[in-house]
Amino acid sequence: MHKDSKMEDTATDVYYKTECKIPDSKVAIPTEDAVIEAKEWVDDENRK
Length: 48
Description:
DUF3787 domain-containing protein, CDIF630_02480-like
């Protein structure tokens, strides 16, 4: 299965900004900033 690349950066997509990919599995590792931004977005949405 082939997935198209992302067209835009979204606050909910922690895997948009990746630090690297694990070579054997091609699992994307998000940047620390991306994880923090995603957590802040989730926390804000949960307060609503």
